[in-house]
Structure to design on (920 residues):
């Protein structure tokens, strides 16, 4: 039996220990905010935060996170008012929105590590997250806004 | 509502764009619609307006019945149906906003509900072709005006005053003479008893009184849910007892399963069943390819099970498809005469007599859509009834195809439209929903079919592959006197009918026969090209290769004559006039030419606007270059300037993009800006990386590692968007697609300015490093 804390709640799993965390979150725990985009850690749509670090849940097995704390988009802030989420709304970032949970989690992790990133640092840190609609300019602006107070 | 604190900090942002901070949905949560507004009147015909659109000619036409689209609850909540699919353009907000504007509803008390697929009830629901605002600005205004008039009539009766003395203002009806007011909620029951006014008698608002239309201060209705992970996409649907499926499909289009061994797959923990899925021979429109499905308790197990399958395929006739060899065929075809699809003057003779002939042969490979949400659908089929939940651009078409595929009446099929995690034309084809329906029927439980990214890349309905060859004949003064353009590309028609070898009128009309230059001798030709895979609509469709070719050729002519790109472009466009190509039954994006002519004054205007705002001709550092391109598509006019920087190693960066768009009367300039910003990214993405290749009939790419799309660190640093203010009664035109086509040629013209290298073959790849 694998035990893992997700958004502050203890969850357990006694199935395949190699099951990617993404599919545990989405299909077993019903936390569908974390998205499937590529399955190979190439697009970042599945990004969650594990112990303050942004992680691609599609290539992280449930076994790898046993005993650790996982935060998904649903758990980032109780009212959805994390500075990054607020900035995202102020700048009207999303188009289709599908990649945005992953983008937001990546940005939140970035700001934990570096509260005042430069534009260049933002562009570098966010480059693992693909947005096919092409919201990059606004993502960059929103991360900057979140880092300067929103 | 609030303003961005310091817009100067936000690069590339139009100052003073207002942004909405508070979610509509959070305010409205818990306010269900009960009772209220049930309007009673016959379905109305469309009003003769200042202009006509092609909306009535779409399948099932237009419905402007307010009873279908609007409900007012006793608590005042106004519910407005969105009958078009949201895939990122903002249409799920924009269309209901038009209704709210015209009916004087307060947007903070409006709830948007998504319509299911039912075109008899709602009219055409195809969210494609950049048509939604263009076709629905008038009908949505009429629906709103009808609802407003009925609320006003109800209030006038209540007070015993003439209806002319009352006026709806911001969610209430006011009798200014007596100072009396009644809220929409208080009037809902009475308004429901009023007859629907005739369209002819409707009084529409004066645009100067608009609160929302054209302003851009309203955020999309799903904004809060998207940022908190609550927004519901196709993949997010979960039903009790639902099983998860992934499918192994024939690797070659038209291939068949010979045999399969399920044993190893069945040993994977969580896998419950392995079964064959019915496939249809190619071409068969959007019918499934068939293959072997692995059914499991979660998607991860299904994927792992599929990896363990042992499969043998018969590749069939397309097993020889090879992109390198096919490109040579296309190039050879482009060098010989083909079916003439537009002829004015005598291009052959003029080319022979020309002082100089500039020749360009431009190649654009297959492209995959790769929307961030791979295809996915949930189906629950029980007996002769089917319910589907899917991210589909065409819920009406999906309903028809599900009914046909299962052999049940269309009325027994319900198609619920989720949010689309991107679409770009891929989700106009409902093969994934049909797969889910077939599996659910066999299993007797709800089934979710999830495509992996590999499935998406390998089994897409790809953008076609094309060679566009242009020969421009110049006289001694450098004036272009002859233009021959041969376009060779497999047609989308090949997905519907075997053996289609010529492009369809709607493809020819995307930048080939509608070419707007003022040239005396023109020949447009379409040599034959066969298809060997599934070809489909990709955002902007044939406009991408056409604009790439035509606008690159403008740059080549500028170079050949030693003139400025912009001046060469304006000289080719010529005098302000309405272009009427000598083409029988020319396709104009389905629109009447009277409302949507090819107007070179508007084409010139966007060139001049972008040149002014984008500072054309400005000094740029060494290694930098500017390029310009303009293109009319989806009846909008759009011009782009790209600045590139190329370092000594050939590394490309894009410091700045400027784009001007004339899309006529518009609803939400803020979403127009977002579409154009995104189009620059997609344009750069396809120009730099976009290429699907085939070897032995199989797609050689599989995921974002070998089919790359643009990432943030290489995206344009700033994209500025300028919107041409519409004249009175200028018909609305497309926004979702027109931004893409001019980008690649503007980029290549800029690269030429920076390096002297002319790129005629996309993608750019490592060509600058050579």
């Amino acid at each position: 039996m694998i035990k893992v804390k997700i958004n502050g709640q203890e969850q357990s799993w006694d199935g395949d220990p190699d099951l990617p965390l993404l599919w545990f979150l989405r299909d077993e725990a019903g936390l569908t905010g974390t998205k499937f985009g590529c399955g190979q850690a190439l697009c970042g749509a599945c990004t969650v935060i594990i112990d303050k670090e942004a992680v691609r849940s599609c290539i992280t097995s449930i076994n790898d996170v046993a005993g650790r704390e996982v935060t998904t988009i649903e758990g980032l802030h109780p009212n959805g008012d994390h500075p990054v989420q607020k900035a995202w709304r102020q700048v009207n970032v999303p188009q289709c929105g599908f990649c945005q949970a992953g983008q937001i989690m990546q940005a939140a992790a970035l700001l934990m590590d570096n509260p005042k990133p430069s534009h260049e640092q933002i562009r570098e840190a966010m480059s693992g997250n693909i947005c096919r609609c092409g919201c990059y300019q606004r993502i960059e602006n929103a991360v900057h806004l979140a880092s300067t107070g929103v | 509502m609030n303003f961005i604190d310091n817009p100067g900090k936000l690069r590339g942002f139009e100052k003073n764009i207002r942004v909405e901070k508070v979610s509509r949905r959070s305010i409205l949560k818990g306010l269900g619609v009960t009772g209220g507004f049930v309007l009673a009147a016959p379905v109305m015909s469309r009003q003769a307006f200042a202009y006509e659109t092609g909306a009535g000619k779409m399948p099932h036409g237009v419905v402007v019945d307010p009873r279908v689209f609007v409900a007012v609850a006793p608590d005042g909540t106004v519910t407005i149906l969105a009958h078009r699919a949201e895939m990122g353009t903002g249409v799920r907000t924009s269309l209901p906003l038009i209704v709210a504007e015209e009916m004087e509803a307060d947007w903070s008390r409006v709830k948007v509900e998504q319509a299911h697929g039912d075109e008899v009830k709602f009219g055409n629901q195809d969210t494609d072709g950049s048509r939604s605002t263009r076709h629905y600005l008038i009908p949505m205004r009429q629906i709103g005006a009808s609802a407003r008039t009925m609320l006003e009539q109800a209030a006038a009766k209540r007070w015993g005053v003439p209806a002319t003395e009352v006026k709806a203002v911001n969610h209430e009806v006011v009798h200014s003479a007596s100072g009396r007011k009644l809220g929409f909620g208080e009037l809902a029951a009475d308004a429901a008893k009023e007859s629907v006014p005739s369209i002819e008698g409707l009084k529409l608002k004066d645009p100067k009184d608009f609160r929302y239309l054209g302003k851009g201060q309203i955020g999309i209705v799903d904004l809060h849910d998207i940022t908190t992970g609550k927004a519901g996409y196709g993949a997010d649907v979960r039903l009790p007892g639902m099983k998860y499926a992934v499918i192994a499909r024939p690797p070659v289009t038209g291939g068949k399963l010979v045999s399969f061994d399920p044993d190893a797959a069945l040993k994977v923990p969580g896998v419950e069943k392995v079964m064959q899925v019915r496939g249809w021979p190619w071409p068969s429109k959007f019918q499934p390819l068939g293959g072997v499905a692995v059914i499991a308790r979660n998607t991860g197990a299904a994927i792992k099970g599929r990896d363990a399958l042992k499969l043998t395929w018969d590749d069939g006739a397309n097993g020889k498809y090879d992109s390198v060899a096919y490109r040579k065929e296309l190039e050879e075809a482009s060098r010989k005469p083909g079916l003439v699809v537009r002829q004015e003057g005598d291009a052959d003779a003029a080319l022979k007599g020309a002082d100089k002939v500039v020749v360009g042969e431009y190649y654009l490979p297959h492209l995959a859509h790769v929307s961030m949400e791979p295809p996915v659908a949930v189906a629950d089929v029980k007996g002769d009834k089917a319910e589907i939940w899917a991210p589909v651009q065409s819920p009406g078409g999906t309903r028809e195809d599900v009914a046909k595929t299962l052999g049940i009446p269309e009325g027994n099929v319900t198609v619920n439209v989720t949010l689309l995690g991107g679409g770009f034309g891929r989700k106009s084809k409902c093969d994934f929903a049909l797969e889910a329906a077939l599996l659910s029927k066999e299993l007797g439980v709800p089934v979710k079919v999830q495509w992996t990214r590999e499935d998406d890349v390998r089994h897409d309905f790809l953008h076609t592959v094309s060679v566009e060859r242009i020969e421009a004949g110049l006289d001694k003064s450098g004036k272009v006197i002859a233009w021959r353009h041969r376009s060779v590309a497999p047609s989308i028609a090949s997905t519907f009918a075997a053996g289609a070898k010529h492009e369809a009128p709607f493809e020819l009309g995307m930048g080939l026969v509608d070419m707007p230059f003022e040239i005396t001798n023109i020949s447009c030709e379409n040599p034959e090209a066969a298809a060997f895979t599934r070809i489909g609509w990709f955002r902007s469709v044939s406009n991408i290769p056409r604009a790439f070719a035509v606008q690159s050729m403008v740059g080549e002519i500028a170079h050949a004559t030693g003139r400025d790109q912009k001046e060469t472009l304006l000289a080719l466009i010529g005098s302000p006039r309405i272009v009427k190509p000598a083409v029988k039954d020319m396709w104009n994006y389905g629109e009447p030419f009277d409302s949507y002519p090819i107007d070179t004054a508007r084409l010139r205007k966007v060139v001049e606007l972008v040149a002014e705002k984008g500072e054309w001709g400005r000094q740029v550092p060494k290694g930098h270059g500017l390029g310009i391109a303009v293109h009319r598509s989806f009846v909008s006019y759009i011009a782009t300037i790209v600045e590139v920087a190329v370092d000594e190693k050939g590394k490309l960066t894009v410091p700045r993009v400027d784009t001007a768009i004339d899309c006529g009367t518009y609803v939400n300039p803020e979403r127009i800006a977002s579409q154009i910003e995104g189009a620059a990214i997609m344009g750069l993405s396809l120009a730099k990386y976009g290429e699907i290749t085939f070897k032995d009939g199989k797609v050689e790419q599989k995921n974002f590692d070998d089919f790359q799309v643009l990432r943030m660190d290489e995206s344009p640093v700033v994209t500025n968007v300028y919107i041409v203010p519409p004249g009175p009664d200028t018909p609305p035109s497309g926004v979702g697609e027109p931004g893409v086509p001019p980008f690649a040629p503007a980029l290549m013209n800029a690269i030429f300015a920076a390096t002297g290298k002319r790129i005629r073959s996309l993608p750019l790849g490592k060509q600058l490093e050579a």
